[in-house]
Amino acid sequence: xxxxxxxxxxxxxxxxxxxxxxxxxxxxxxxxxxxxxxxxxxxxxxxxxxxxxxxxxxxxxxxxxxxxxxxxxxxxxxxxxxxxxxxxxxxxxxxxxxxxxxxxxxxxxxxxxxxxxxxxxxxxxxxxxxxxxxxxxxxxxxxxxxxxxxxxxxxxxxxxxxxxxxxxxxxxxxxxxxxxxxxxxxxxxxxxxxxxxxxxxxxxxxxxxxxxxxxxxxxxxxxxxxxxxxxxxxxxxxxxxxxxxxxxxxxxxxxxxxxxxxxxxxxxxxxxxxxxxxxxxxxxxxxxxxxxxxxxxxxxxxxxxxxxxxxxxxxxxxxxxxxxxxxxxxxxxxxxxxxxxxxxxxxxxxxxxxxxxxxxxxxxxxxxxxxxxxxxxxxxxxxxxxxxxxxxxxxxxxxxxxxxxxxxxxxxxxxxxxxxxxxxxxxxxxxxxxxxxxxxxxxxxxxxxxxxxxxxxxxxxxxxxxxxxxxxxxxxxxxxxxxxxxxxxxxxxxxxxxxxxxxxxxxxx
Length: 509
What we know:
By secondary structure, this protein is of the alpha+beta class. The protein has helices at residues 7-23, 38-41, 49-64, 80-95, 140-155, 184-190, 208-214, 221-225, 247-251, 289-305, 307-310, 313-316, 322-325, 360-380, 400-416, 440-444, 471-489, 499-508; strands spanning 99-102, 108-112, 121-127, 166-171, 234-242, 255-261, 263-272, 276-277, 329-331, 335-338, 344-345, 348-357, 384-393, 396-397, 432-435, 450-455.
């Protein structure tokens, strides 16, 4: 920042303000002799590039190299790479001035507890595990951004002025790769992890209990329950996460706030027909489950692209709006045939259906309507069909107050960035998005109110080594988190005001 001609006067005014504040008993952590360093203690330009961008990106790259795979990133629940990553994350938490520990499900905690504080804690974090052949941002971005934000508070002297406890949690498992069950880490903290989880096994027959014991955890139901937080001790949970979608990139805006996480229904459709020889059964006499399944897949696509054209009036109640239908997505991700031979008309075909929507009524109506259409189409093709319900989870709305606070923080951060963090959007506010993917915030919402911030990623690519987040967008996310914490948990004493507000306060003296 270039010096101005008014700098000597401004400096003397700072000295005057320090003297007044110290006399009133408000200034306790910065001696008057540190007056020359006051602008730096206030954060310099307030953007903290060295910590929130440069160091954070370096740490993302460092964590991205800790892998169980050779030449690709894989870090699953309590694997050797996960244990190595734990030591690194603990060191970063300590560097930010946090007290650290690892709970009985392998979650890493870093916490700052203000003296004599009786207020509920602000929790932040994300997951440290990855999918197979992963990118370096999914999960890790939320952990490291939160640590970096608290480090900024430490170096600016604001950590000691927190009015409530703050804590970063690196959850041990969210992806569910090893044991095919998601949210092992966050569900333990939220208190929703069932005791039966200990007996769930991976493909090799190793159970969750075995893995815990191998890594010197107690591996009992009582021990796991110790990871559970008392809801009365927690005020909120906030998570930074890469978007994993293309919306922010299309809007040319680096950050978005999440209004909620979509509800999800998983179905399995089984179609039985007549197995036969591919060369001898005439077309008109076939009961081909493959053709019926293909028609059902296309029917699902039409239903979810243009739901009002296929829904019955009784099903839609005439009440679905464009807003309630926004974000509805349907996917067939797996299709299996029997006997799966090139010269055989299949005897059976089954396929999976994944239906997600922010509006639970919309999702339930789509499930009902699709089930009706399955039976109708199958009757027309003289094949037998059944629909099995495999999983259902309601939508998880973000807390409106938290969302508003995060929206203000995101707008403030982006507005302060040099070149507006690569945005050419004319939007005054950060976009509000729905999350179609599940996140730890979904599990934590059963413990406390939650809010999320999405960070723009290139092409919407995730769960791939090609996933990419611009360095300046990482910076913007960290800065938004700093501003949010300052709103939510830092004392509002005059000394801690940003430079512009401090100048205004000085002018009023």
